[in-house]
């Protein structure tokens, strides 16, 4: 009886550890997906010249980024922290990779402002950017509890840099954040 109880305890412990590990790596995969969606977004925006089809393509691409960010934020709520130092380094590498691609997305949106204005879609673009901005804040807020205390300041700074790139674009469009 004791042996069965100990075996069940061992199985539940191993299963719990595997779930936490899988979930942090699911989160990392989500970050990779967001990064890919950002890379894919830039040529869609630069190809925008005001047609309805292009407007829909831009909206769909922005929605895909936002959905990816929200999915990643959901994964963070399933993961128990603090994550290991190795996982933190992986997280930081992924955020460092994501940052320039978020900047490229925001630059493309700024560069195409005249076309968005001409087509009357600037307000819709701002709404979409605002949604992504808010989603990144949720992601950052959900990520910080996963990081051990010694990395919290660095994690906060990495998230702030990404959020600031988005905020700059909102300010460029005349929206305060």
From TrEMBL:
GO terms for cellular component: extracellular region. It comes from the Eukaryota. Pfam families: HsbA. Gene3D superfamilies: 1.20.1280.140. Keywords: Signal. Residues 1-16 form the signal peptide. This is Uncharacterized protein.
